UniProtKB/TrEMBL annotation:
Pfam families, sorted: p450
TM regions (residue ranges): 27-47
Name the UniProt record assigns to this protein: Cytochrome P450 3A5
Organism the protein comes from: Lasiosphaeris hirsuta
UniProt entry keywords in alphabetical sequence: Heme, Iron, Membrane, Metal-binding, Monooxygenase, Oxidoreductase, Transmembrane, Transmembrane helix
Required co-factors: heme
Length: 553
């Protein structure tokens, strides 16, 4: 848009100046229009030629940063990135190609320069040291904004700190301990759902992505909205969030292409009349509408906050806590009162991120159990059964779960190798120097957790192998705080990290204590390769799901 404005303004000046030089200065549209259009076309073409072919290679202060050279002059690395079987594979390759470079430069659509953060030290600089010197760019909102809303993820500076302080309540350890039974009840419901799909011999195959999406949407429905959605026990839930989230997170090939196109060309999505696009738009609108309805009903509930507490032990769902805080601030006539729209955006963020992260983690856990050496599953189950034997008549406590060493190793390895979050973006708010690299204001930086999570320079030659035992002997950079970025780091690390891990571990304990997982015809047909993934994808999700073999213990 800026190039169009500059070209138009310059062309108008040139047209007027030429008319004056010719002694025929006339300010009528009919007289100036032909010259204006001719100058505009030439001016715009020259600007684009400069941006495409001259600036990035001969002028840009980033031109000395190494990176891939196989891009297209018009679409950069876009084709290469989209042709991968995974949304993160190409980034991981670049990281391993340039293991010692803090940043890697590549070209996006129209040869736009992008920097990929690579080494642990560069992650520290971006996520910790200069955290608030980077902002969330418009491209990030085009990527996930219609799904997660303009909540905590997009808040900046003092606003981010204020929102984070308000939201910390539900994610405190005491509150998580109180809602643990809710998660465990839902985990038991998953067992019933899986049992219903097994034969009389206790064996069968289940599709794990859909199964655990139903479980986690029910958990976050209760803990975030205070509503029991009932997806695990009914095919006709009261609010069908799951149906609409499935459209968003698994858009199909055409939907994925439209997502990529919308990243490259701002605003193009609203002009595409294809069903793959309109169904996405309708889904995000329906999700927002349902959340708005719940928020408005709760805000105007004359019964007060005390009647909204729906969880055990006197704990409140996130929505109740936000409304309570809103009322307290209103009584103080504070300017920090969270408006209705902001509450809706926070609900969008935690509902989408809360259910998809854990559903993906469980899906990849069962995939790992089905494909990794059998001793890994045996070792995990042995630890789980030993812990449960000490609690024959009650569910595991927070302390029980935290004390399970191999469970911790296993979950860390799943999150390292199959990080649910694919990527996010930052934009330099001012001129900065990170790790000796000058980054001018306005530069877009892409943060891909898988890059450092699967770096061979950090994790060794077996970085792409599933090995939970590696966590018992971390050495070098792998032992540092910036080698494992599945939940990010610094002041903007995932606020729901402990909630997500607790939910994940609880579901996994229930699963391995009741069932043995093995391969399936789908996995055998892949010959050891990973299933095809959604690309581009907001989360690391297998296209069409993952089927694994299940046997009742």
């Amino acid at each position: 848009m800026a190039d169009i404005q500059v070209s138009a303004f310059t062309a108008l000046l040139e047209a007027v100046a030429l008319s004056g030089l010719q002694g025929t200065l006339r300010f009528s549209a009919a007289a100036l229009l032909p010259q204006f259009l001719a100058y505009f076309i030439v001016q715009y073409a020259l600007i684009k030629l400069y941006r495409l072919a001259i600036f990035p290679h001969f002028v840009s202060p980033l031109r000395h940063i190494p990176g891939p050279k196989d891009g297209h002059i018009l679409i950069g690395q876009m084709k290469n990135l989209l042709s991968e079987n995974t949304p993160v594979g190409r980034f991981v390759k670049w990281g391993n190609d340039y293991p010692n470079q803090p940043f890697i430069r590549y070209f996006d659509f129209a040869n736009k320069e992008m920097l990929m953060v690579n080494t642990p030290e560069a992650h520290k600089e971006l996520l910790q040291t200069y955290c608030y010197d980077f902002v969330k760019p418009a491209i990030l909102f085009r990527y996930v904004g219609d799904v997660i809303g303009r909540g905590l993820v997009f808040a900046e500076g003092a606003t981010h700190k204020k929102q984070r302080r308000i939201l910390l309540g539900i994610f405190s350890v005491p509150n998580l301990k109180r809602i643990l039974p809710v998660i465990q009840d839902k985990a038991a419901e998953v067992t019933g759902l899986i049992e219903s799909q097994l034969g009389e011999d206790g064996k069968g195959f289940i599709e794990v992505v859909g199964t655990y999406s139903r479980a986690t949407i029910d958990v976050v429905g209760l803990t975030v909205l205070g509503v029991n959605l009932g997806n695990l026990v009914s095919t006709d839930p009261k609010m069908n969030f799951l149906k609409y989230y499935e459209r968003v997170f698994e858009p199909g090939y055409l939907g994925a292409f439209i997502m990529a196109l919308n990243l490259a060309i701002p605003g193009v999505r609203k002009f595409i009349p294809l069903d793959a696009n309109t169904s996405h738009i309708r889904a995000t609108q329906e999700i927002r509408s349902m959340i708005l309805g719940v928020v408005r009903q709760r805000i105007h509930d004359t019964g007060g906050v005390s009647e909204m507490l729906s969880l055990p032990g006197g704990s409140a769902d996130l929505l109740s806590l936000l409304i309570e805080e809103r009322k307290n601030l209103a009584l103080k006539n504070s300017e920090d009162v969270m408006p209705e729209e902001e509450i809706v955006n926070q609900m969008l963020t935690f509902l989408a991120a809360g259910h998809e992260t854990t559903a993906a983690s469980m899906s990849w856990s069962l995939y790992a159990l089905a494909t990794a050496p059998a001793e890994i599953q045996d070792k995990l189950r042995a630890e789980v059964m030993e812990m449960l034997a000490n609690r024959p008549s009650s569910n595991p406590t927070w302390g029980d779960i935290e004390g399970m060493h191999y469970l911790r190793n296993f979950c860390h390895e799943v999150l390292r190798l199959y990080c649910p979050a694919t990527l996010t973006y930052r934009e330099a708010a001012s001129d900065l120097t990170l790790c000796g690299t000058f980054i001018p204001k306005g530069t877009n930086v892409i943060f891909v957790p898988a890059v450092v999570n699967r770096s061979k320079a950090v994790w060794g030659a077996d970085a792409d192998e599933f090995n939970p035992d590696r966590w018992d002997n971390l050495q070098g950079e792998a032992a540092g705080p910036y080698a494992f970025e599945s939940f990010s780091s610094g002041p903007r690390f995932c606020i729901g990290k402990h909630f997500a891990v607790m939910e994940y571990k609880s579901l996994l304990i229930e699963a391995v204590s009741k069932f043995r997982f093995g391969t399936s015809p789908q996995l055998e047909a892949l010959g050891g390769k990973m299933p095809e993934l959604q690309n581009p994808g907001i989360a690391l999700r297998a296209r069409g799901g993952i089927r694994v073999g299940v046997e009742r213990i």
